[in-house]
Design goal:
Arc Repressor Mutant, subunit A; 2 domains; two-stranded antiparallel ribbon; alpha/beta; disordered N terminus; Rossmann fold; 48% helix
Length: 223
């Protein structure tokens, strides 16, 4: 009996999703959507893998996390696969976000229309500069920092996008979390300390540039 209960508990535990898989799934989705598949059309792991320079076994493993099942010799029904990936990533459910720091990067993020297709709606910007507060960025209002907490509570906003300077990032994060935010998308070049249960996704642009530069240098040396 004990073994059976242990087996049941193990089956009930959700599988941990590898970070590389989460990074690849949006690429699969973008490829599938770009090809404009008709209803009933199918696509195989081999086709996806060849288009993206991957191994078909890796694609198959990644797609297995979405719960979809392919058909022998034909692969997946393309439109069903698109929906499975969107559902898995949560992109069919729009989540409201508030962006803190309406500098050049913040304005670029506020102006980007593609987030909605990925389940994210940045409803407004927040900045402490009076001049910036008078701006309307791509139809999005910029509000004072003093009004951010009440807006988070009133709209039940769960995501904070932080593009403020490193010196201000922790204070902004603390305020947003205290107001009810559950996830932070951090573009500030600093490690944020958050309570247990709060999700933080760091976007380190300097680290990405370092990787790009290193790859370029190696490529130039090899040529």
């Amino acid at each position: 009996m004990e073994n059976s209960e242990k087996d049941m508990n193990a089956e009930e535990q959700p599988r941990a999703i590898p970070a590389p898989t989460l990074r690849r799934l949006p690429g699969y989705l973008q490829l599938l959507k770009s090809r404009g598949y008709a209803p009933g059309s199918t696509v195989s792991c081999t086709v996806i893998a060849q288009a993206l320079g991957l191994q078909s076994i890796q694609v198959r493993k990644d797609l297995a996390y979405t719960g979809i099942t392919g058909r022998p010799k034909t692969g997946y029904v393309a439109l069903e696969l698109i929906k499975a990936i969107e559902d898995f990533l949560g992109w069919n459910n729009t989540h409201d976000a508030l962006l803190f720091g309406v500098g050049q990067l913040g304005r670029a993020l506020l102006s980007y229309n593609g987030f909605r297709a990925q389940g994210l709606d940045i409803v407004a910007g927040v900045d402490c500069d009076n001049a910036v507060q008078r701006l309307d960025v791509h139809g999005k209002k910029v509000i004072p920092l003093s009004k951010a907490s009440s807006l988070i509570r009133r709209l039940h906003i769960k995501i904070a996008v932080i593009t403020v300077p490193a010196s201000s990032a922790q204070a902004v994060c603390d305020m947003a979390v205290a107001a009810g935010v559950k996830a932070v998308w951090n573009f500030a070049p600093v490690q944020l300390n958050v309570p247990e249960g709060i999700i933080v996704q760091n976007e380190n642009l300097a680290a990405s540039l370092a990787v790009l530069s290193k790859k370029l240098n190696l490529s130039l040396k090899a040529s």
